[in-house]
Recover the amino acids of this structure.
């Protein structure tokens, strides 16, 4: 926990000047607070005759008696020369000025600390979002997206709460407590010692409460992640939920999870709130001991304590209690928030499996070929998806990959942009291992069009030029024409500025696919990867999309995955993959003449049609 807290604090370094300014303002706030309280007692003492007025100017020295004597002298002088009312007015103005300065510095302390917590939370959120984008796709195979979204939102919000309380706990409350304790020691070391006797017991009780809060907070954040996952799954699968009349089932499941989270949250907040009453009761006990001891010393006239001194001690001790309450509560809130910090650092510290070499080579185009040498891949050890793949793809050629579902076709093309790295073997572009190239350059070479089209809730224009800046509308329209998309886009209410809804919900499947192709066309990729781009379309949409694909594939290196073998029969070479291995390869005619698996698939699809 301490390590996590220190890591959070390390994010504060860019704002060190604000930290120093906040600290100085809070220190001045505590000093003026003590001064404000300290000047009340001399005035009351003289006004009500508790002590004799000081006529001769005393020599000032830094002690309670020295301060009292000096204040008494000046108040007595004003009272004798100008009258009691003027003395009261003088003290009131002095008191008000000290109070104004005290509260001014309190405000300035908050003024400088607020940007620290907000900007630090922003930096953590930026770091987390960047890490989410660069983590390998395999990471998301083992982690629910709803859990990650919860960490991005709720857990980062907890970090902001942690920083707010940490600023108070580190840079305000301790210095108020220290300043007030010094003042109490100057007044009476004996009473100060008595007032502190209760604190070991308070520390023990609060430690028990804090440990319980940490345990419950961890369980609570885990339940909140489950709730986030249920939200995400329910929204994305709403059509299925409604279609199978499963709304009551999902509502019951959600209510159960939500009830568990609510119970945990109640326990957490009750324990957080329990700390303040405990601290208040024990502080009251301590105050009673101080009053009892002070009263005993006064009435027995031991000379160790005067009535006015006891009044000042009680006033300062009473002002000491609220920052202790606030510190205790802040500490418990920090304990709760540190669970969120651990969850965030689990993502930030996640292993980046796709790592770019130092001094990686740039690459802007493919000049010769792409070659896979003895490539094998496994998501988990000994669970091979691809086995000893050897394949050479010459520049400008079209390669088709066919095979049954689960044979490893999509995995194979995901290796080319380094979404995953090969487990064994190597992939070469122009004779150089792709691991030696700059990752962003490798991905700039490729254009991906898949069966699962992902469009954003934005304009058609922004979806087509996604990831590119300063693209003219003329180029976007040209790309849309090549993708057979310009005709339906022009008929939309705002044409290229039309909002297409979440995931392109306002468009048909064929329209979404053609916008996806236009997006690939605009990037003008050296290598085009088509993954089942027409498999989920009706016949008319398939014809339009297929025409768009043929347009984009002209004079371009292409790798096509397709279940419908009629769409790949004109490929320069067809690769048949079965259970992760290449079993056949050749042209459409050559594979038919071989009369093996490919020929049987062609016959089966002819019969089905």
């Amino acid at each position: 926990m301490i390590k996590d807290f220190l890591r959070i604090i390390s994010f504060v370094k860019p704002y060190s000047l604000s930290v120093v300014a906040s600290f100085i303002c809070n220190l001045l706030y505590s000093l003026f607070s003590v001064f404000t309280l300290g000047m009340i007692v001399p005035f009351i003492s003289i006004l009500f005759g508790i002590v004799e007025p000081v006529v001769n100017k005393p020599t000032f020295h830094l002690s309670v008696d020295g301060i009292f004597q000096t204040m008494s002298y000046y108040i007595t002088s004003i009272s004798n020369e100008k009258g009691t009312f003027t003395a009261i007015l003088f003290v009131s103005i002095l008191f008000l000025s000290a109070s104004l300065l005290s509260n001014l510095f309190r405000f300035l302390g908050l003024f400088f600390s607020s940007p620290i917590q907000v900007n630090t939370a922003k930096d953590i959120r930026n770091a987390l979002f960047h890490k989410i984008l660069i983590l390998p796709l395999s990471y998301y195979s083992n982690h629910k997206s709803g859990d990650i979204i919860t960490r991005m939102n709720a857990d980062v919000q907890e970090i902001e709460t942690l920083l707010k309380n940490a600023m108070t706990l580190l840079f305000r409350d301790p210095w108020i407590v220290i300043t007030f304790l010094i003042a109490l020691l100057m007044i009476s070391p004996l009473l100060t010692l008595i007032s502190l006797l209760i604190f070991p017991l308070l520390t023990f009780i609060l430690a028990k409460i804090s440990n319980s809060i940490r345990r419950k907070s961890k369980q609570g954040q885990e339940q909140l992640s489950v709730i986030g996952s249920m939200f995400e799954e329910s929204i994305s699968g709403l059509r299925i939920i409604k279609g199978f009349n499963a709304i009551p089932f999902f509502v019951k499941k959600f209510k159960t999870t939500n009830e568990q989270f609510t119970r945990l949250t109640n326990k957490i907040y009750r324990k957080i709130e329990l700390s303040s009453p405990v601290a208040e009761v024990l502080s009251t006990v301590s105050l009673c001991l101080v009053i009892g001891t002070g009263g005993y010393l006064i009435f027995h006239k031991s000379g160790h304590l005067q009535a006015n001194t006891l009044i000042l001690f009680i006033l300062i001790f009473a002002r000491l209690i609220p920052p202790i309450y606030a510190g205790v509560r802040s500490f418990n809130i920090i304990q709760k928030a540190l669970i969120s910090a651990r969850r965030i650092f689990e993502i930030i510290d996640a292993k980046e499996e796709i790592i770019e070499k130092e001094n990686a080579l740039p690459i802007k185009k493919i000049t010769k070929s792409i070659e896979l040498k003895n490539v094998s891949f496994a998501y988990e050890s000994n669970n091979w998806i691809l086995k000893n793949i050897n394949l050479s793809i010459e520049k400008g050629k079209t390669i088709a990959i066919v095979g049954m579902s689960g044979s490893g076709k999509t995995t194979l093309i995901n290796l080319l942009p380094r979404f995953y790295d090969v487990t064994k073997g190597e992939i070469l572009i122009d004779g150089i291992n792709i691991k030696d190239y700059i990752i962003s350059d490798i991905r700039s070479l490729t254009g991906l069009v898949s069966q699962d089209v992902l469009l954003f809730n934005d304009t058609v224009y922004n979806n087509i030029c996604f990831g590119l800046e300063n693209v003219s509308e003329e180029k976007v329209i040209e790309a849309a024409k090549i993708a057979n998309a310009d005709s339906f886009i022009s008929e939309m209410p705002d044409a290229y500025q039309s909002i297409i809804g979440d995931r392109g919900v306002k468009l048909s499947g064929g329209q979404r696919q053609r916008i996806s192709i236009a997006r690939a066309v605009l990037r003008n990729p050296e290598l085009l990867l088509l993954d089942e781009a027409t498999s989920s379309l009706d016949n008319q949409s398939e014809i339009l999309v297929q025409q768009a694909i043929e347009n984009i594939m002209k004079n371009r290196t292409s790798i096509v995955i397709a279940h419908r073998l009629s769409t790949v029969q004109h490929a320069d070479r067809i690769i048949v993959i079965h259970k992760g291995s290449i079993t056949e390869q050749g042209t459409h005619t050559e594979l038919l003449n071989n009369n093996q698996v490919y020929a049987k698939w062609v016959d089966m699809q002819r019969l089905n049609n």
